[in-house]
Design brief:
The structure is a single chain. With 754 residues, this protein is α/β, with parallel strands linked by helices. 31% of the residues lie in helices and 19% in strands. The protein folds into four domains: 3-288, TIM Barrel (Alpha-Beta Barrel); 299-529, Rossmann fold, CATH 3.40.50.1700; 546-662, Immunoglobulin-like; 677-753, no CATH class. The two termini are 54 Å apart. The chain binds beta-D-glucopyranose.
């Protein structure tokens, strides 16, 4: 299809019309020219295709579909292939259901454990979020349907989500809040991007030309169309110029007319409208020309796939005395309503109408398992009788497994959590059960970290997250050893909410939220502060053990234009097959830039039989060592020493190797009379010119060596050096005035600055 010529045949009114949805879920058709409508649908972890009344809150019904593990769980797999498989399955469902685009992945950074939508998001770490998002997108799009990576950008709270401004400095945006989008665009070219509701440094994402055009398209090379989040459009004409192609869902024609008026009034270039139409139609036709409505959608097979994926996402947080896996013959008490009715997805636009749900209780059929309800999730309460029944069940069993987690009301799209605790009745239940039976295991179904005041009194904790409709199957497989847990935390579990770096500023004041913790989000903060955490980023146990050894780098010194290969040997040293999530971190040692201790720059999931070992290689390029330099508005590597670390969590580093990286870029320097000597020293020309004066000043500050000159000797070498280092250039007038020729400083500065 020749899209340009098609657009040239459209009237201005038709073009303006194409820039907003025809209804809640469709782009507009133009019958006169045979342009079809195309349908989009939520997303991300399955289809929420609505046939009847549309809504973006997950309220009205949608077709029966398969709910895969939500983002919080999927990311914990640390497995790109796995999330790619999930994407392919979702892409096939889209083809079957004639959807051009599924609205996901949702990749906003988990700045605080309180964000109501963390369950949908992937990680506190931008590298992990980006790699997993790219894998999901490549999976979906391999089926010739599109994705909509969302919500671009810095949409990290639900509170005032349609008006709040996320105020962050350039470096923080570039290092923390943008890379998941950047990586996805560069590695997977999503067909569409969804801009967020919020403002960024005062400007609505939907009107932000820097964001949607300069960065997204200009720098990263995005080729698809940008759609608004549902109702995120403010000034539509400004939005068109900014690069917001499609307004969703629609404005009843009001904004279409505004586009026409703006063009007629000379306030908006018609070429901007043409461009938006071209981008939208490119994608509409990419779908139409590749549509395969006869693609089968095997719900049963996807239910099984969902169970398989969920098992790979579960994170074994604690396993004292190897209490897990359980023996199949043992008497086990399942306690807690979530054993019978699992919470496996979150509330809001991602809410899927599952065709089937399998609970752990159902999946445990045939095993020696009893059940006590323990609490009532909907009522958020436990009666004394329920607790007594649970205690009796725990006493009668060899092992008590308490199913706990967050009820629907605790976390959802649309609002944030108020605290980081489990419901009080569940904490009480766990304490009571643990007091009754020393062999207590806790299974958690929640979308975001919780505090665990009882952690010292239970033997094991299995974090199941919101694992999708087949989570019960996965849970039983892991509990009883038919699957070996291999999930790792994609976020830190702090000991208490107050430890979180965003705690002081989260949610902000009125419509402004300042991101004052800067780049120190998640483990970047906890590690820098050497703080104890409940469970660190990257943590996850297995029923087997792994060894990482022989870390070798392809060079011990590189330039920032080179790549570096790091290879490590990973061995399964236990007696069960298992999967290791090998993590590579890079840290800058020394240097002037304030940086995290370590940052994730590579990860691989490796399956190993008992005794088997394998080499895992990672390639690191400039980005692995760079920080965002606001001076040059670009990535920059400080020349210096770096550390490459291999770990099985951010706090379980198994091997370390140093590498020196030389920068090939010299930061432009500007000198004035207030430039201090320390900075002048970086420029050999400057130092040569002022050396005689420096010598004179040094002599004045140097210790005399004369025993009678006590005052002068009190000035140590170090102090003298500091005096000189921090002295501005103008200081040479004060301290070496007789050696400074007239006009010297001005001449020197004009010479240096040219
Ligand atoms: C959500 C999006 C979703 C859209 C359509 C919005 O409220 O923020 O993530 O895709 O609704 O349901």
């Amino acid at each position: 299809m020749d899209i340009k010529s098609l657009v040239s045949q459209l009237t201005l009114e038709e073009k303006a019309g194409l820039c907003s949805g025809g209804d809640f879920w469709h782009t507009k058709a133009v019958e006169r020219l045979g342009i079809p409508a195309s349908m989009v649908s939520d997303g991300p972890h399955g289809l929420r295709k609505q046939d009847q009344t549309g809504d973006h809150l997950g309220v009205n019904d949608s077709i029966k579909a398969v709910c895969f593990p939500a983002g919080c769980a999927a990311a914990a797999s640390f497995d790109k292939d796995l999330i790619g498989r999930m994407g392919r399955a979702i892409g096939q469902s889209c083809q079957h259901e004639q959807l051009s685009v599924v609205l996901g992945p949702a990749v906003n950074i988990k700045r605080s454990p309180l964000c109501g939508r963390n369950f949908e998001y992937l990680s506190e770490d931008p590298y992990l979020a980006g790699e997993m998002a790219a894998a999901y997108i490549n999976g979906v799009q391999s089926q010739n349907v599109g994705t909509s990576i969302k919500h671009f950008a810095a949409n990290n709270q639900e509170h005032r989500r349609m008006s709040s401004s996320s105020d962050a400095d350039e470096r923080t945006l570039r290092e923390i809040y943008f890379p998941a989008f950047e990586t996805a665009v560069k590695k997977a070219q999503p067909w569409t991007v969804m801009c967020s509701y919020n403002r960024i440094n005062g400007v609505y994402a939907s009107e932000n030309r820097w964001l949607l055009t300069d960065v997204l398209r200009g720098e990263w090379g995005f080729e698809g169309y940008v759609m608004s989040d549902w109702g995120a459009t403010a000034d539509r004409a400004v939005g068109v110029h900014a690069g917001l192609d499609l307004e969703m869902p629609a404005s009843g024609g009001v904004n279409d007319r505004k586009i026409v008026e703006a063009v007629r009034a000379g306030k908006l270039d018609e070429a901007d409208v043409d461009l938006a139409c071209e981008r939208i139609l490119n994608i509409v036709y990419r779908y139409v020309e590749n549509a395969k409505p006869d693609t089968p959608w095997d719900l049963e097979a996807q239910h099984a796939l969902s169970a398989e994926i969920a098992a790979e996402c579960m994170v074994l947080l604690k396993n004292e005395e190897g209490i897990l896996p359980l023996n199949k013959g043992d008497a086990v008490a399942f306690i807690g309503e979530f054993a019978e009715k699992p919470r496996y997805q979150g509330g809001g636009s991602s809410h899927i109408n599952s065709f089937r749900t399998t609970s752990a209780l159902e999946a445990a059929e045939g095993l020696n398992v009893t059940y006590a309800r323990g609490y009532d999730a909907l009522a958020d309460a436990a009666t004394d009788a329920q607790i007594a029944e649970a205690v009796a069940a725990a006493k009668a069993a060899k092992v008590a497994v308490v199913f706990a987690g967050l009820p629907d009301a605790y976390e959802s799209e649309g609002y944030d959590r108020k605290h980081m605790r489990l419901p009080e009745c569940q904490d009480r239940l766990i304490e009571a059960v643990a007091a009754a039976n020393p062999n207590t295991v806790v299974v958690l179904y929640n979308g975001s970290p919780v505090e665990m005041p009882w952690i010292g009194r239970v033997k094991a904790v299995l974090e199941g997250y919101l694992g999708g409709q087949a989570v019960g199957i996965a849970t039983v497989k892991v509990l009883f050893g038919d699957a070996n847990p291999s999930g790792h935390l994609a976020e830190t579990f702090p000991l208490r909410l107050e430890d979180n770096p965003s705690y002081l500023y989260y949610l902000g004041e009125g419509n402004v939220t300042e991101y004052r913790e800067g780049v120190f989000v998640g483990y970047r903060y906890y590690d820098k502060k050497k703080m104890d955490v409940l469970f660190p980023f990257g943590h996850g146990l297995s029923y087997t053990t792994f060894e990482c050894s022989g870390l070798r780098l392809s060079a011990d010194s590189i330039r920032d234009t080179d790549t570096l290969t790091a290879t490590v040997t990973v061995k399964n040293t236990g007696d069960r097959a298992g999967k290791a999530a090998v993590q590579l971190y890079v840290g800058a040692s020394g240097g002037e830039i304030i940086r995290p201790v370590r940052e994730l720059k590579g990860f691989e999931k490796v399956a190993l039989q008992p005794g088997e070992s394998r080499d895992v290689a990672f390639t690191l390029d400039k980005r692995a060592f760079a920080y965002w330099c606001e001076q040059i508005h670009d990535w920059h590597v400080e020349t210096g020493d770096y550390t490459v670390e291999i770990g099985l969590s951010s706090r379980d580093i198994r091997a370390t190797a140093p590498v020196r990286v030389e920068s090939t870029v010299r930061l432009p320097a500007h000198y004035d009379a207030n430039t201090i000597f320390m900075d002048l020293k970086k420029d050999p020309k400057a130092m040569a010119a002022i050396q005689p004066m420096v010598d004179a000043i040094s002599a004045a500050f140097a210790p005399s060596g004369d025993e009678t000159d006590a005052a002068k000797d009190a000035v140590s070498d170090e102090m003298g050096m500091a005096m000189l280092n921090y002295m501005p250039l103008r200081g040479i007038l004060s301290f070496a005035g007789d050696k400074v020729p007239e006009g010297f400083i001005d001449q020197l500065l004009s010479q240096l600055n040219n």
